[in-house]
Design a protein that fits this description.
215 residues; alpha/beta; Rossmann fold; five-stranded parallel sheet; two-stranded antiparallel ribbon; 7 helices
Length: 215
């Protein structure tokens, strides 16, 4: 089994999402002997934002791709191949300005490739990456899950569920720590609550894997 751990926070060792992805990965490995882990740090290895050059070869608008298009296509193919090879993807996704970090969005833009992670049919889009488990370490400075107003403002967890669902992934699990900027006591409580969710998140995914192997 292959696990891909993806971090996107720009806060380095001060990042709570990085703490949580490390703990999620460690608990997954403890529960699944033989799991291999690949690591991607999007704050360090950040793909360029999506551009006409990144789309160029895929769009097939010209007979001979430019050097820039070839270079960007190489990046896209490396990232989507790495993603498709993973059985489990653990993603650190802090809430920045009501959405995901720009680095994480740039990565997702490279994954969204017709013919690789989805396709269009006469009945609409069909995801091509089914059967994977995605575990999101969601971190937030404020409280968003406890009110309709907060839920309306967040485009982080909702976006990730939507895009991975579009790719055909229905097993998207959230380990959430929110209220991290609301004082030391609130931060400690948020971390404790998130850490308490990790065993259940990894155990449920493990049970699904066992069922799939038995089918």
């Amino acid at each position: 089994m292959k696990l891909l751990q993806v971090d996107s926070s720009v806060l380095g060792t001060n990042s709570v999402s990085r703490q949580l992805t490390a703990e999620i990965t460690a608990q997954w490995r403890a529960a699944h002997a033989g799991t291999t882990v690949e690591y991607l740090d999007l704050a360090v290895d950040t793909p360029n934002h999506f551009s006409a050059d990144a789309l160029g070869i895929k769009a097939g608008l010209q007979a001979e791709p430019t050097e820039a298009q070839r270079r960007e296509n190489t990046v896209s193919e490396r990232l989507v191949s790495q993603f498709l090879a993973a059985d489990v993807i653990v993603i650190g996704a802090p809430l920045y300005n009501f959405s995901v970090p720009t680095q994480l969005k740039a990565w997702i833009d490279r994954l969204a490739q017709a013919g690789r992670t989805f396709k269009y049919t006469e009945k609409g889009p069909v995801g091509l990456a089914a059967g994977k488990t995605v575990i999101v370490a969601s971190t937030r400075g404020g409280m968003y899950s406890t009110s309709d107003a907060g839920n309306a403002m967040e485009h982080q967890e909702s976006y990730l569920k939507a895009i991975f669902g579009f790719f055909g992934i229905t097993d998207v699990r959230i380990v959430r720590a929110e209220g991290l900027a609301m004082g030391d006591a609130a931060k400690a409580a948020a971390l404790a609550a998130a850490r308490a969710e990790i065993p259940a998140a990894t155990a449920q995914a493990a049970n699904q894997d066992q069922a799939a192997l038995a089918a």
